[in-house]
């Protein structure tokens, strides 16, 4: 009985609202009621102190959403909705796409939205900013997003979106787009070449998906591009030389793909290869193409990228010598070229890496002697030259590396005595000299009180075992194979 009585009164309320509000207010009333309809569909709201403001009371003639939490208006019409991080749980099923003609910004990131992004999203034709990141949205990205031609920012990071980035998205129609983040989803298929039409795109993040195929050479036409993050996909093929045309590129992250082919020489034109290395909070300017199938030589032109602070080309199939010109990268703090087939010597000019802290040239075919100038890289704390073919003696200048914490010269053809200057390496905690032809006495290590781990196996060293913890705790295997 109660229910029967209640329904007409609700109708009466709505009719009353509609009639007692003037024409000027009528649009905002429509928008208000439409938003309330969506609110009613939501399953929960973690932050309960937020949406109570979303209400129309009978006494309130102003059925106006403009004062509600998270809502901003232009005139009497909703222009911005921002409910980021308020525990909104629900779907877009009842979202009033058709009732918000002036909506320009929609930020529903970091919530519990699930289900699909419906094709009706195209009705928000004035949208310039759309952020649905960090939800559980699934299914395909509707091609209709391509009709939101005023979009400048589209963030869909970390959802469960799958399917391809279809050509039908007409991504190229979003000609105002400046930021596109769809990283951390389940996108598969190849990257449409129509991206090349996005002349204003500055930030493009498609990393951590399952995208395959090659990087379209049309990427070279996105002339405003600042950041290109394609890491952790299944991309194959060549790195298109056209990327060399992107003179504003500061971040280029391609690691963990199946890229192969030559590093295009044009990449050397990128003057500002600056990007935050994902694992670090520092502002590193770095180029990471590690763990791909890159072949060919290291282009000497990379030496022109004067801003470069980190260069990681490890675990590829690079051949040839380390170009002398690379030593012009005097801002480098990390240089990782391990796991390639580089040959020849370490360039004498290596001493000009005055900022270098981390140098890993291990597992290549480098040979000749370790240059004396290695001692000029005074900031080195990690030096790994293991598994190469370095010969002759360890230069005494190595003693200048007083910061060095980990030193690995194992698996080479080094001979002669360990220079007495080794005693200066007071920061050393890990030392591996195993599998060389080093001779002489190991009493030299008596001074290295900080050594934690030592491996000198398979040399021709002799003498009493030094009275430092690392030697006292060393296993037989780490000392064996000496005289
Ligand atoms: C109200 O809506 C009508 C129809 O949707 C539209 O023609 C009119 O311009 C709107 N008025 C305002 C003030 O937005
Ligand atoms: C809930 O919303 C209020 C009002 O905006 C805000 O001050 C508070 O930090 C929010 N709490 C949580 C847990 O998000
Ligand atoms: C939404 O609000 C949050 C703070 O609550 C703010 O950090 C964010 O920039 C806003 N989004 C937009 C699009 O203005
Ligand atoms: C919204 O779009 C309509 C046409 O699509 C246009 O007439 C109107 O000026 C736009 N409003 C804003 C605030 O840009
Ligand atoms: C995409 O996800 C939806 C829902 O999670 C699923 O039903 C569909 O099979 C998936 N499609 C593909 C191509 O993986
Ligand atoms: C994209 O633009 C082309 C013409 O440039 C047009 O034919 C197509 O319908 C547009 N697609 C969408 C989704 O608007
Ligand atoms: C890449 O493709 C292979 C098969 O071709 C598949 O097994 C693997 O899971 C894919 N990796 C990613 C990150 O999608
Ligand atoms: C680079 O840009 C120039 C001029 O815009 C163009 O002629 C050239 O073909 C582009 N190079 C590549 C490799 O795309
Ligand atoms: C690199 O190429 C070889 C074949 O040339 C292939 O076996 C290997 O899986 C590839 N590695 C990656 C990471 O794609
Ligand atoms: C990173 O750079 C920005 C500006 O370029 C600066 O404000 C910030 O302090 C830097 N952060 C670190 C950790 O160096
Ligand atoms: C040096 O490099 C080799 C091969 O890349 C690696 O196995 C070893 O652990 C590295 N040494 C140190 C001390 O990190
Ligand atoms: C290592 O270098 C020596 C000369 O110092 C050379 O005879 C030998 O062939 C090289 N070995 C490899 C595997 O490159």
From TrEMBL:
Look up the domain of life of the source: Eukaryota
Q: Where is the signal peptide?
A: 1-22
Xref: InterPro entries:
DNA_repair-toleration (IPR053211), Leu-rich_rpt (IPR001611), Leu-rich_rpt_typical-subtyp (IPR003591), LRR_dom_sf (IPR032675), LRR_N_plant-typ (IPR013210), LRR_R13L4/SHOC2-like (IPR055414)
Gene3D superfamilies, alphabetized: Ribonuclease Inhibitor
Checking PROSITE patterns in the record gives: LRR
Keywords, in A-Z order: Leucine-rich repeat, Membrane, Repeat, Signal, Transmembrane, Transmembrane helix
Start and end residues of each Leucine-rich repeat-containing N-terminal plant-type domain: 31-73
Span of domain Disease resistance R13L4/SHOC-2-like LRR: 121-255
Task: State whether keyword rRNA-binding applies.
Answer: no
What is this protein's record name? MDIS1-interacting receptor like kinase 2-like
GN (gene name): LOC121203335
